[in-house]
Design a protein that fits this description.
DUF4867 family protein; Jelly Rolls; 33% strand; alpha+beta; DUF4867; 214 residues
């Protein structure tokens, strides 16, 4: 699998690199993120006070979401596999304390509820650079660049990835409800993924990509 840079032209359909954000805003977040744990597997915390209370976080949040309530969380760990792809109704912003790799595809590549993983592309993001991943981009758990693992800030509108609301039990079987998982979270799973075993919608066909072998 070829690994592009987020600075390559190939990334433009998937997101945007915010390379003009002052380091006075990003550096304190990177420092706080560096102190968060790196588990053997992966762990996601949707709203992390240790990031949200950093000086300048509100300024950055306004820049990203224009006054909409937001949350700053993190996803850390060790991972090399695709497993799933998800999307939200708004952009997600990522900022790494270490370099990390994103496996990405586009929503329009979903055909009849399925996506062939051969269409997935890999992009490496440098530490300390704020990266926007568009709402139309399918993404999931970052992958590590080396054995040290990954530490990635995940910024989203407040409530995203939160508990599945009770009303979802009566959600109409229409649109993309077939792959709805949690609050503002729609997921396509590979059959070999842990989330598929939890009852997630199996919508990825082909290989369950692994950046170390594919």
């Amino acid at each position: 699998m070829h690994i592009y840079s987020v600075n390559d032209p190939e990334f433009k359909p998937y997101g945007c690199v915010w390379d003009d954000v002052p380091s006075s805003l990003t550096a304190p977040l990177v420092e706080a993120l560096s102190a968060t744990p790196i588990p053997e597997g992966s762990k996601y915390v949707a709203s992390a006070p240790e990031l949200e209370q950093v000086e300048g976080a509100d300024t950055l949040g306004l820049l990203m979401y224009g006054g909409r309530p937001f949350q700053l969380g993190w996803c850390n760990g060790h991972n090399t596999k695709l497993n799933c792809l998800e999307y939200h109704r708004a952009s997600e912003f990522n900022l790494g304390a270490r370099d990390f790799i994103l496996l990405l595809a586009k929503r329009e590549q979903i055909v009849d509820g399925k996506l062939d993983t051969a269409q997935v592309k890999a992009f490496r993001a440098p530490a300390g650079t704020l990266v926007e991943v568009y709402a139309t981009t399918l993404h999931y758990t970052p992958c590590m660049v080396d054995d040290g693992g990954f530490q990635v800030m995940v910024a989203l509108p407040a409530g995203t990835n939160g508990p599945r609301p009770e009303a979802a039990a009566n959600m109409l079987a229409a649109g993309d409800s077939y792959c709805y998982w949690k609050a503002d979270k729609w997921v396509l799973c590979h059959a070999d993924s842990p989330k598929a075993a939890e009852g997630g919608y199996v919508g990825l066909t082909g290989k369950n990509l692994d950046i170390t072998v594919d």
